[in-house]
From TrEMBL:
Cleaved signal peptide residues: 1-20
Keyword annotations: Cell wall biogenesis/degradation, Disulfide bond, Glycoprotein, Glycosidase, Hydrolase, Secreted, Signal
Protein name as catalogued: Glycoside hydrolase family 28 protein
GO-annotated molecular function: polygalacturonase activity; rhamnogalacturonan alpha-L-rhamnopyranosyl-(1->4)-alpha-D-galactopyranosyluronide lyase activity
SUPFAM superfamilies found in the cross-reference section: Pectin lyase-like
BP-aspect Gene Ontology terms: carbohydrate metabolic process; cell wall organization
InterPro entries: Glyco_hydro_28, Pectin_lyas_fold, Pectin_lyase_fold/virulence
Main location, first listed in the record: secreted
CC annotations in GO: extracellular region
Location of this chain's protein in the cell: Secreted
Family of the protein in this entry: Belongs to the glycosyl hydrolase 28 family.
Length: 443
């Protein structure tokens, strides 16, 4: 009785957010302030803000002391990390990163991994906390082998927010088999290269919003298995772009919404990528997309040539809606804004493309192309049926209403892979005209 009163008392302090696509509450179960009643400052466990002393062991010790009902604090200052940490079995615990952690070690794996933890918050109270992976030191040698900046595995009821993740040797942030998470107010900035993913998520009941990614691979990408994920206010500020995939055998992705996605100078605005495989992607909405300067725009490719073919007749794509897409693509004659190439042995069904107007930035032509794809709009065939060869139509006039806002601070030149990448400040907005859902820390 008493326990349940306390539990609901704590919950009442937090906004209860159940937004459309989500299946229930996301975020920590207890408040930031309740966790702050017990703090474990890494400086008291041997850490030094001298950019030399390894913060790994002190961080692990501080976690051990505070992992139940406490807050691990990394105060403002510059820290070196030469050995990685796995922080596990936490309950009602926060990790407050106000300093900057610089990678100095060279192992693979994950610089910081959180696992098997419930009711967790990782954040910067000032908006200035960051993990600087210094990936350029590895990338300049032509190598991509190295650590991820941050990985969460089997974490439930959590949030990660107001942090910058910079120049990861490999991926920046992955969430694997997590539930009830909220990720927001994040700036991710990596090298201009494939394989340096921003956010990869395969989890259940997640709200990811107000995130900026710069790199040349995944912006915010959903992998299998995943369900009930809402991804909104995403700024792919020179990136690879967002995607579902790559998808292989037994894919199980459903109830995903991407909304308010601004993509600039990326490989695509949204790609669904596979080659063979099995399983399904269903009940997904891609709404309010603005693109400028991208190679592909809407790009479904179930014969993706960068992936070796997987056994199976193809992942079945059903009930996917693309609506309100505006803007311009880089060169519509070489890469048109609509490409829906489905598996011949598993044709797509119930695809809807509506309120879609994009035009080319160079030349005066663009194409739409569909293959084995059924639904409504543009080159999609009506109804259901068997495979058909690609049908391509070419336009030589701009569609009405294609013009769309730009972000005033679009990155003009990539950061490359050979020199240090500066830590960004958190942007004030992640989509034209949209204020972040939560106030940015320190603003
Ligand atoms: C299609 O997906 C949308 C969005 O998830 C959902 O609301 C709708 O019920 C689905 N339609 C069918 C026929 O399943
Ligand atoms: C986009 O990235 C560039 C370089 O990181 C940055 O200067 C700019 O502020 C970013 N845009 C926004 C709106 O934050």
């Amino acid at each position: 009785m008493r326990a349940s009163t306390l539990f609901f008392g704590a919950l009442a302090l937090l906004p209860i957010l159940v937004v459309g696509q989500l299946s229930g509450h996301v975020g920590p179960l207890t408040s930031t302030s309740s966790k702050a009643s017990k703090t474990c400052n890494v400086l008291n466990y041997g850490a030094k803000a001298d950019k030399t002393t390894d913060i790994g062991p002190p961080l692990a010790s501080a976690w051990a002391a505070c992992q139940t009902g406490g807050t691990v604090v990394i105060p403002a200052g510059d820290y070196a990390m030469s050995t990685w940490v796995t922080l596990k079995n936490g309950k009602a615990v926060a990790l407050q990163l106000d300093g900057v952690i610089y990678r100095t070690g060279s192992a693979g794996g994950n610089m910081i991994m959180i696992r098997d933890t419930q009711d967790f918050e990782m954040h910067s109270s000032t908006g200035k906390g960051a993990v600087q992976g210094n990936g350029y030191q590895i990338h300049a040698q032509g190598s991509r082998s190295g650590a991820r900046n941050l990985r969460l595995y089997k974490v439930t009821d959590f949030s990660v927010h107001d942090l910058a993740l910079v120049d990861a040797p490999a991926f920046h942030f992955s969430m694997d088999t997590c539930t009830n998470g909220e990720v927001y107010n994040m700036a991710i900035r990596g090298g201009d290269w494939g394989g340096l993913d921003g956010i990869d998520v395969w989890s259940t009941n997640m709200w990811i919003h107000d995130v900026m990614v710069t790199n040349k691979d995944e912006c915010v990408t959903v992998k299998s298995p995943a369900k009930n994920i809402l991804i909104e206010n995403i700024y792919c500020n020179w990136s690879g772009g967002c995607a579902l995939g790559s998808l292989g055998a037994n894919t199980a992705i459903s109830n995903i919404v991407y909304k308010n996605v601004y993509t600039w100078s990326s490989n695509q605005m949204m790609m669904i990528k596979s080659n063979g495989g099995s399983g399904y992607v269903e009940d997904v909405v891609f709404e309010n997309f603005i693109g400028h300067g991208n190679a592909y725009s809407l790009d479904v490719d179930q014969y993706w040539s960068s992936m070796s073919a997987v056994d199976g007749s193809g992942v079945k794509l059903t009930n996917l809606t693309f609506k309100n897409w505006k803007g311009t693509e880089s060169n519509g004659a070489s890469r048109g804004p609509i490409k829906v190439v489905c598996a011949d042995d598993a044709p797509c069904t119930d695809i809807t493309i509506s309120d879609f107007a994009m035009w080319t930035e160079s030349g005066s032509k663009q194409w739409y192309s569909c293959r084995s794809a059924y639904g409504t709009g543009f080159c999609l065939k009506k109804g259901t049926g068997s495979s058909y060869a690609a049908t391509t139509s070419t336009q030589s006039a701009a569609p009405t209403g294609y013009s769309a806002a730009s972000m005033s601070a679009d990155l003009k030149t990539a950061f490359g892979t050979t020199i240090s990448i500066p830590i960004p400040t958190l942007p004030a907005s992640y989509y034209p005209g949209a204020a972040p859902h939560s106030k940015v820390a320190g603003s």
